[in-house]
Design brief:
Helix content of chain A: over 70%
Largest sheet of chain A: none
Order of helices and strands of chain A: HHHHHH
Largest sheet of chain B: 7 strands, antiparallel
Distance between the termini of chain A: 29 Å
Number of helices of chain B: 11
Structural class of chain A: mainly alpha
Number of strands of chain B: 20
Structural class of chain B: alpha/beta
Strand content of chain B: 15-25%
Strand content of chain A: under 5%
Oligomer: heterodimer
Chain lengths: ~80, ~500
């Protein structure tokens, strides 16, 4: 399951169904064409897909963000200092 | 299967209010059961990836949304630590003017001096200090540059952190455990003092007989019945869920105010494209404020995050979005928060909260002004382009309510304190009107908008409540002594 699918799956029921349908549309060429006529939904779908894309370390890395390194640095610091 | 526990105090909710009350009561010698509906989150599981962390640390994956004009996202934490786990850590005491309003409007005998020992005690427990400039990051430096050029009042925020290295993701789980949320401060203290902490406990009933509390019934994560026998129940499920729990148990309804008077801090943010490298996620995301317009109900505060956070929040689409994201390292972000005059209501529909909240004309006008101020701030700081949270081509002064792209934080007021039983849900000691032995210790008791982040207010009120229940005074100064106190529920 992708991170965005987990995000959608843990949402409340009305949003969950709506977002799944929205993402299904946004991932298909015909759906994307349909969404162009619905600017607010199009922006929401675009934001969700952009969040998924830029969450990928391969994409965020060249932008200066390496989540694996951030988490590892935090873990090492916690262990060194005996934090919870 | 069922289990029964007995205690002097049963506390429902391990967030800002409940964790503090539980720890202070336990350290004061009382037996305490602390119930939390969500799980315990461990820092080892924090991945620094926003979508995953939204799904795991936030209630409903951060998708709680108000119904109204416009709909507003209202992120809430879930689990040990509550929303303190995922907030930005900003610490303000309750403003003096707000306390004066509470005294005159709600009959609450609270002032700066009487609350000072509680504030000091909380701030000591959380290690509250001002963010040093070198940790604030370049995102804050840009806002500071703009504010200085405009002559606007500003400063570095105070926050609860120890050994922070500026990981840049406070809202997605601090990977270094630098942020001193109550899950790593007060909850361990409560446990060390003998409190029993139960996670996955969904409290369904507050047991009342003969006009006073007798305990609670909850369902465990495995569906088993858990009964806690306790003469005093402290409800601290937060401003959205506390009124639902009380309503379900037909408690706190006499004034007609339960679930009403919902105050939020609706907020939005703008981006500036700079000529310099910003790397906004390097440093403390919320480290700087501009309070030049606080008298108008507009507070500007820092916000920042990694690329996935910005990709979601950037008010652009298509090619413009892609171009801006390609320049992520040069993007700066700053937010504005409105001290609202709008009021909403929380009700249960099929057991789930429905949050009705319409932004009123005055607040819409605050946003128009605030967004224009954000544009000024970034322009003064040297931004090449400014991306406002409005539809393309819309000027701030012309923005309609439906044009506003808002989030909201800090829900307050749905179980408001008022000395008069006809006007409030709890009294000045946070005791529920109309029943003995039920208290509320969360943001719901806060009777008005604060204009500042509320965690210290909630924790100070919980501290005051705990010592009241221990029939003691909050220790003044640096003394931490709590011995020799009795229990008066």
């Amino acid at each position: 399951m992708s991170s965005i699918d987990e995000f959608v799956a843990r949402g409340p029921l009305p949003q969950r169904s709506a977002l799944r349908a929205l993402l299904t549309l946004a991932r298909r060429p015909r759906g994307r064409r349909l969404l162009k006529g619905l600017p607010q939904l199009n922006q929401l779908a675009g934001s969700l897909l952009a969040m998924e894309r830029f969450d990928d370390p391969a994409v965020s890395g060249p932008l200066g963000w390496d989540p694996v390194a951030v988490a590892a640095r935090g873990r090492d610091l916690r262990r060194a200092e005996g934090r919870l | 299967m069922s289990a029964t526990l007995s205690a002097d105090f049963c506390v429902i909710g391990a967030g800002a209010g409940g964790a503090v009350a539980a720890a202070e009561l336990a350290e004061g010698g009382a037996s305490v059961v602390l119930l939390e509906q969500g799980p315990e989150h461990r820092a080892d599981d924090f991945t620094a990836r926003p979508p995953e962390m939204l799904a795991r640390l936030y209630r409903d994956a951060g998708q709680t949304t108000t119904v109204g004009r416009p709909p507003i996202g209202l992120p809430l934490g879930r689990g040990i630590g509550g929303t303190t786990l995922i907030n930005s850590g900003t610490c303000f005491r309750t403003p003096k003017a707000v306390l004066e309003r509470w005294a005159s409007e709600f009959g609450l005998e609270l002032d700066e001096e009487s609350l000072r020992p509680s504030f000091e005690r909380v701030e000591r427990a959380l290690s509250v200090t001002e963010v040093p400039a070198e940790l604030a990051g370049r995102n804050a430096e840009i806002a500071r540059r703009g504010a200085e050029r405009l002559g606007w009042s500003h400063g570095y925020l105070r926050r609860n952190a120890v050994g922070c290295i500026g990981s840049g993701i406070c809202a997605y789980g601090c990977p270094t455990s630098a942020k001193q949320h109550v899950g790593i401060t007060y909850v361990p203290r409560a446990e060390a003092a003998g409190a029993r902490v139960v996670t996955g406990a969904d409290v369904r009933r507050i047991l009342v007989a003969g006009g006073r509390a007798r305990g609670i019934e909850a369902r465990s994560a495995e569906g088993e019945l858990l009964t806690v026998e306790a003469p005093t129940v402290i409800v601290a499920a937060g401003s959205i869920y506390t009124p639902l729990l009380l309503e379900r148990n037909e408690l706190g309804r006499r004034s007609g105010q339960l679930g009403r008077n919902l105050s939020l801090h609706p907020a939005t943010a703008a981006f500036g494209l700079m000529d310099e490298v910003v790397d906004m996620a390097h440093g403390v995301p919320q480290s700087f404020f501009v309070d030049e317009f606080s008298d108008e109900g507009i507070m500007l505060e820092g916000i920042a995050g990694p690329p996935a956070h910005v990709a979601m929040a950037l008010p652009l689409s298509g090619t413009k979005h892609a171009e801006a994201m390609a320049s992520y390292r040069s993007l700066a972000q700053f937010g504005l928060m409105v001290s609202d005059s709008s009021r909403g209501r929380v009700r249960a529909v099929a057991g789930r909260p429905v949050i009705r909240y319409d932004v009123d004309d005055a607040d819409a006008d605050r946003f128009r002004k605030g967004i224009a101020r954000l544009h000024e701030l970034f322009t003064a700081a040297g931004a090449r382009e400014v991306y406002l949270p409005l539809p393309r081509g819309t000027k701030p002064a012309e923005a309609r309510r439906r044009d506003l792209k808002l989030m909201a934080f800090h829900p307050l007021g749905t179980g408001r304190a008022d000395a008069r039983p006809t006007h409030g849900v709890v009294d000045g000691d946070l005791a529920l009107h109309g029943v003995e032995g039920v208290y509320v210790a969360d943001g719901s008791v806060v009777p008005s908008s604060l204009g500042v982040n509320p965690q210290i207010t909630i924790m100070a009120l919980a501290t005051r409540l705990a010592f009241h229940l221990l029939d003691s005074r909050v220790p003044d100064g640096s003394s931490d002594a709590t011995g020799g106190v009795g229990i008066s529920a």
